[in-house]
Specification:
This protein is mainly alpha-helical. It has four helices and two strands, in the order H-H-H-E-E-H. It has a single domain, classed as Winged helix-like DNA-binding domain superfamily/Winged helix DNA-binding domain (Arc Repressor Mutant, subunit A, Orthogonal Bundle), CATH 1.10.10. The protein has a two-stranded antiparallel ribbon. Helix 1 packs across helix 3, helix 1 packs across helix 4 and helix 2 crosses helix 3.
Length: 122
């Protein structure tokens, strides 16, 4: 059985991926995109900075804004996390697909049973 990534690693993967795709996002925008609080985003960013996985720089046109970037170590870490996360997602997909098939079969059986009982009522 495939185990889930710890919540912190899942959040780090999501944040690293967002930063890679949108280096110009502010902390507030990163928080919105992740669906978490600004405080949690700040906490996650601080952890990534401390580990040397991301860095921040100033925009030349807007010196008050920061731009985030993955360090080479951050890119390697994102790939590592992705490799560990992908089998989890694939297993969840297979499980969900089976659940959907079972629900459809149940609905079909229920519909046939209702049709038979309606026919026998007349």
């Amino acid at each position: 059985m495939v185990e889930h990534l710890p919540a912190a690693q899942d959040a780090h993967l999501r944040l690293l991926s967002l930063i890679e795709q949108h280096p110009d996002y502010s902390q507030r925008r990163l928080a919105q995109a992740m669906g978490v609080s600004l405080g949690k985003t700040h906490y996650l960013l601080a952890a990534l900075f401390e580990k040397g996985l991301i860095k921040a720089g100033k925009f030349t046109r807007s010196p008050a804004k920061l731009m985030y970037a993955l360090t080479p170590e951050g890119m390697r870490h994102r790939v590592q996390l992705t490799r560990r996360f992908l089998p989890v997602e694939e297993q969840e997909f297979v499980t969900l697909k089976h659940e959907i098939e079972n629900l459809r079969a149940t609905l079909e059986a229920d519909a046939q049973g209702q049709a038979k009982s309606a026919d026998s009522a007349f």
